[in-house]
Design goal:
The strands form five sheets. This protein has a nine-stranded mixed beta sheet with strand order 4-3-5-6-7-8-9-14-13. The chain is built from twelve helices and 21 strands. It is of the alpha/beta class and about 450 residues long. The structure holds 5'-O-[hydroxy(phenylacetyl)phosphoryl]adenosine (DLL). 5'-O-[hydroxy(phenylacetyl)phosphoryl]adenosine binds next to α6, β7, β8 and β12.
Length: about 450
């Protein structure tokens, strides 16, 4: 648990929608089955590609008798959306949509997602439910520093806050000095941002001599990228608030698919709207509850873009154990990284977040870091660049580097060269942080004369 410990309110009193949020597991499964049939019918009737896939495994929506029938369907992956760019997997004509969003992706075409008015309505409800679970209440001023635009973060949090009855300051990312000034002047109680941008705001506050921990901020809703427990403590100390993890992805809805409650022991995944599976990423087989694997999500109520067994690439564990808060919906434990972010350094598999967990909080080191993967001859080489905290003597950098490399080796098993650098030298994020600089492909391109 983080730096701030507070008693947890027990029971359903702290739910926005207690009837739904505390349904028995049996009642939830029954509701899921009814909704699964409806979403399969929607896909069958309106998305020819989906119907063909159902026909191929002889799964007619009306013949579904149990949730396990879904397992007969193949997975959906991101490239399926790209292959049907822009609207080929939509179950509604473009004219019937209320909004589109898209995620940029690093290569090729963006992934485009669409919403009916009903989808937006349910999204706002779920986002409001998530925020309420984290302690946000009607009337709280919400400073929203997630990017507005095609990214789902800005508008997702915005509409959820409005649905809850909260006034919103629609800042978007960037312009950090102004953000700090307005947090102080307006007296926001809630900050919404990526964890890396929240940390950047804390730093700018310090540089400006503004005492952000003394501001009226009390709650932070941070997500859209992996972040460690150590990072949470840094952010809480730097901003003087309690930090909550919020998870989601555009293909499924956007933010608010899952969110931490006041117990902060995992993120409740809203099972009345989504069906969660965890699979072995290698062979697609289900893993036992509590085991790490790839999260697969089926939307149960999406009209415009029903997603069946979508492989998120996110690695996590889930539990259906009762939560202290009284909610019955399963909990997704911290998402430690994406399958496709995994690095293999001389045969050792690792995620950038593991390095973060080792480095952040070590004496003298700041929470600003970047991983650089290079190729030395035929071998991959990992260099970790991490900033020293302001005030640390540069003469101490070498010893700090050696100590950090030793800890990385003993805790993760990876040999890394650590370069402790001066404060302020690494790039700061305004949204999702870029944690890995892969210099291998650059070298390859140079070699090919590109
Ligand atoms: O990042 C939606 C979002 C916005 C979530 C604001 C939370 C807050 P995408 O841009 O489609 O959507 O990226 C989705 O981001 O598959 C994860 O890999 C990662 N991600 C999202 N939330 C978390 C989190 C938004 N809390 C991808 N922890 C997902 C770790 C997260 N990773």
């Amino acid at each position: 648990m983080g730096a701030i410990h507070e008693p947890v309110r027990l029971g359903s009193a702290a739910c926005l929608d207690p009837a739904r949020e505390t349904l028995s597991r049996d009642a939830l499964a029954q509701l899921q089955l009814e909704r699964l049939r409806a979403v399969l019918r929607n896909a069958w009737q309106n998305v020819p590609w989906q119907r063909a896939r159902m026909q191929a495994v002889e799964l007619h929506p009306d013949a579904v008798t149990g949730l396990e029938d879904l397992r007969r369907l193949p997975f959906t992956v991101k490239t399926d959306l790209r292959d049907h760019y822009p609207f080929g997997l939509f179950a509604r004509p473009v004219g019937a949509l209320a909004r589109v969003h898209a995620s940029s992706g690093t290569t090729g075409k963006p992934t485009v997602v669409g919403y009916t008015a009903g989808d937006l309505d349910r999204w706002a409800d779920l986002m409001a439910r998530s925020m309420y679970g984290a302690g946000v209440r009607a009337g709280d001023l919400v400073h929203n520093a997630y990017g507005y635009g095609l990214f789902t973060g800005g508008l997702g949090l915005h509409c959820g806050a409005e649905r809850l009855g909260c006034p919103v300051v629609p800042m978007s990312g960037g312009g950090s000095e102004r953000q700090v000034a307005l947090i102080m002047d307006f007296g926001a109680r809630v900050l919404c941002a990526t964890p890396s941008y929240a940390l950047a705001l804390a730093e700018v506050g310090q540089q400006l001599g503004v005492d952000l921990p003394q501001s009226r901020l009390e709650i932070g809703l941070f997500g859209a990228e992996p972040w460690s427990a150590a990072m949470r403590e840094e952010i809480e100390a730097g901003l003087g608030l309690k930090a909550f993890d919020v998870y989601g992805l555009s293909e499924i809805m956007g933010p608010g698919v899952a969110c931490a409650c006041e117990a902060r022991d995992g993120l409740h995944g809203w099972e009345d709207h989504f069906l969660f599976e965890v699979i072995d990423p290698e062979d697609g087989a289900p893993v036992a509850e509590g085991e790490a694997g790839e999260l697969v999500i089926t939307t149960l109520t999406k009209e415009a873009l029903p997603m069946l067994r979508y492989r998120t690439r996110d690695i996590t564990r889930v539990t259906t154990r009762p939560c202290d808060c009284g909610r019955t919906h399963l909990r997704i434990l911290r998402v430690t990284g994406r399958d496709d972010d995994m690095l293999i350094i001389r045969g050792v598999n690792m995620y950038p977040s593991q390095i973060e967990a080792v480095l952040v909080g070590r004496p003298g080191l700041a929470a600003h870091y970047q991983l650089v993967v290079e190729r030395h001859g035929s071998l991959d080489h990992l260099r970790v660049e991490v900033e020293a905290q302001p005030g640390v003597e540069p003469s101490a950098f070498d010893d700090m580097s050696r100590a950090a490399a030793h800890h990385i080796k003993s805790l993760i098993g990876v040999t890394a060269q650590v370069a402790v650098c001066a404060p302020g030298t690494l790039p700061r994020s305004q949204g999702k942080a870029v944690r890995v600089r892969d210099e291998r492909s650059r070298r390859d391109k140079r070699d090919q004369g590109a």
